[in-house]
Amino acid sequence: MPQVTDPVLIEAVVAVAGRAGRVEERRRALHRRVSLLAEAAPVVPRRSARDTELLPALFGLITDDEADAHRRTADPALPATLEALTADGACLAGTIVEEVRRLSPSAPPRDWSQLLGSIDAVAWRAAVAPTPDADRAALLALLDTWADQPFARAGSRWWVGHATGSAALEGLRAGGTIVVSAPVRPGGAGCWFVAPAAEDPGRDPVPTAVAQARPVLVRRDDAARLRALVAAVEEHGPVPVPESAAARFAELTGVRRAVARLVVAGLVGRAHRNEDRALAGKAPYRATEMTAVAYEELRARLGGAGRRAVLAAALPEDPAELWRPGGVDAAAERMAGVWRELLGTLPTVHDEAADALETDLGLGEVWARRLAGGCTAAADTTVEAAGWELAATPYGIGVEVRAVPPAGPELPYRTPVGLDVVAIASALVWAWTDRPVGDPAVAGAMEMYERLRAELARPELLLALPGGRVQDTSVRIAERFGPGLLPVAMDDRKEEGPVPVTAYDSGPLVVCAPGGASFLRPAAVTDPEVWRRVREVTDLAEELDRVAPLLVGGGLERMMLRARSGPVPAGGYEADPRQSCPELVTRVAAELRVGADAAALYLQVAALASPTDRNVRRWNGWTAKRHKEVRAELLATGAVMEAKRARAGRTVFLPGEWTALKAPNLPLETVKLASHQVRPLWSNAVRAPFGRVLPTAPLHEMFAQAWQRRSANCS
Questions:
Q1: How far apart are CA 259 and CA 131, in angstroms?
Q2: 429 near 559, Cβ under 8 Å?
Q3: Phi/psi of residue 89, each to 5°?
Q4: Quick one: the chain helix, strand, coil %, rounded to 5?
Q5: How confident is the model at residue 41 (pLDDT cuts 50, 70, 90)?
């Protein structure tokens, strides 16, 4: 036979032989599997649930769901996790061998081992009524399967954990230890595992082989308890969760009532963020948008182990207690105990006030807690600023005031730095003009005001005057506001560098050249004479008037003094002129020839930015019927007009032009823009002292100004 010498031909022959060898190898492996399964068929669960049904129901209890949901879908329509649970239990019980265990799941399973020691968390979620029926069916199938496994037996001890590779686990198996395991991710090196603990702890090989293994002792007879719970749900139906349980949880932990509803209902959630937040906003939870975000953050802080611990605490020794009077309330108390251990307790917050603060100002619950208990009552991720500086904005297109972070390690990206002066001021205006006098929900407002005043007194703090620029040349700006200079931190992200900017510091004002961008130093204008001279810079007059309510002697300080010793009795509203300025109401009533109620309504319509029907009834304590009667009386005078206008929330208006501000502000009569120091911008935004359209002076002053304006127009 001739010898083959062509290298290409030799390589081809070798390749063909190699492929043939691999095919033969696969054939033999498949034959072995078929033979093995024919001799010992895979164990199947008594109930089945596909992973597409089970995994969403276990959201948050198996912690790799969220990160890996889209990559671990070899065939999620198969009941792989329940099949694996059944086979793993049989292997641990010694009824099937390791190879049969591995072959039993129809697809890669999820890490059920995380539930070992906290299967009660699944039981609670399966038992409560808010859980959707499809989720409940999957969870009951899991519980029914779990009850048949050796790790449901009281007194059994186990090791659970993750191994970085399979070598340590194979070593344990070679030494005679039964170990069930599976890759954390298909094709990955890490494995989760469960192994029985040895009778003699001193001779247990598992903790030596896998240092991060955690011990689990099953203290109760989970087999009997879980079967009893499954039977009770099927006989009596799921357990209703009364509002009293959420109220008790909120009382004990300080969380918002909507958050409490979500927690006691099983730490409700979905893997997709939009679905998760939409679910939190629906009945019966009714979380606002910001509350849904806060709940998401709290749930993340708990982590998988914490979430399982909170829910597991709900299940009593005898599950039948849940269907007895007070059973769910007692469960909520146990959950609250674990929550407090893990996350602590927050100061109580008034839900209605927190919702109103979010709706009216876009401020989250941390501000509601601060208004109730002072600045130290609640914290967010904001870091106290070491100081303030001027900095060129990205790519050198302007100058801004920027908080300087404290010395130390670099802060995580997007960590807020520095006190938000506008947010504090707007919260205070809201507290002192829209809430009832003596309202506990704003009891910390005075402390917040003192904190704001201390910040405004810092000599390095500058307030931007965004709509005002000194219209002058660079040379003239230097002559007028120099020779003092303030450093400007330059942005270096633009390849050719930012446009050089010089900041001239006159003390009260800092003006940049070129361009004339201007900033006010509040600490330098506490003297009325200094403020008068600053106001003479006519290019900045409008913007200076816009920041004036924040300054010493400004509208905010007068609101504070009014709140401290005003004439309105506790429970009354400054927004009700009958209580805040009764003498003015008497004069208006005489002039318009109407009763006190109609006079008060006129002043509210004339002075306030948002005298909606709902607000007026709240401020004045009127029923809808009484409001209608007063409105008719006032309309008959001709001092106001009736109309239908989009988003107004009312039908009575001042005659004259109308400005259709965009959300989140309400549209209003154009004449009110000046008294509220508001300039609409081309976008949905406005320039206003407090970000939103809010009063700039105590309301009794606003009422008097509105009446004076009418009197001047009528004379």
A1: 16
A2: yes
A3: -65, -40
A4: 50, 10, 40
A5: low
Distance of CA 523 to the CA centre of its chain: 35
- Residue 431: CB partners within 8 Å, gap ≥ 6? 371, 439, 442, 445, 563
What's the CA gap between 605 and 502, in Å, rounded?
47
**pTM for this predicted structure:** 0.86
Instruction: With beta carbons less than 8 A apart as the criterion, state whether 260 and 247 touch.
Output: yes
pLDDT of residue 34 exceeding 70: no
Cα angle: 371, vertex 376, 379; to 5 degrees:
90
Amino acid (1-letter code) at residue 708: Q
The three-class DSSP label of residue 214 is strand
CA 712 to chain centre: 49
Q: Which two tokens stand for residue 202?
A: 């001193």
Name the helix (H) or strand (E) containing 659.
strand 658-659
Tokens of 208: 């030596």
Amino acid at 3: Q
**Ramachandran class of 414: left when φ > 0, alpha when ψ lies in -120 to 50, beta otherwise:** left
- Whether 431 shows a pLDDT value over 80: the answer reads yes
Instruction: Tell me the one-letter amino acid at 634.
Output: L
Query: For residue 511, which of 459, 558, 476 has the smallest C-alpha distance?
Result: 476
Apex 481 CA angle, 479 and 483, nearest 5? 70
Q: How far apart are CA 14 and CA 21, in angstroms?
A: 10
| H helix or E strand, kind and range, residue 368 | helix 365-373
- Among residues 216, 197, 199, which one has the least CA distance to residue 208? 197
Amino acid at 478: A
With contact defined as beta carbons under 8 Å apart, do 95 and 109 qualify? Answer: no
Question: What gap in Å lies between CA 126 and CA 179, rounded to an integer?
Answer: 29
Query: For tokens 């005001």, what's the residue?
Result: 449
Q: Is the peptide bond prior to 483 cis by the omega test (within 30 degrees of 0)? A: yes
Render 387-430 in DSSP notation, one character per residue: EEEEEEPGGGS-EEEEEEPPSSSPPPTT--BS--HHHHHHHHHH
Torsion angle defined by CA atoms of residues 75, 76, 81 and 82, in that order, rounded to the nearest 10 degrees: -100
Q: Quick one: tokens of 286?
A: 């009714």
pLDDT digits (tens, 9 = 90+) for 298-315: 999 999 999 999 999 999
What mean pLDDT, rounded, does the chain reach?
90
What DSSP character marks residue 117? T
Q: How far apart are the first and last CA of the chain?
A: 127
- For the ranges 213-217, 273-277, 534-538, 561-565, which has the lowest average pLDDT? 534-538
- Smallest Cα–Cα separation from 327: which of 316, 335, 338? 316
Structure tokens at 86: 């059944």
The beta-carbon contacts of 483-487 under 8 Å, at least 24 apart in sequence, are: 486/390, 486/510, 487/389, 487/390
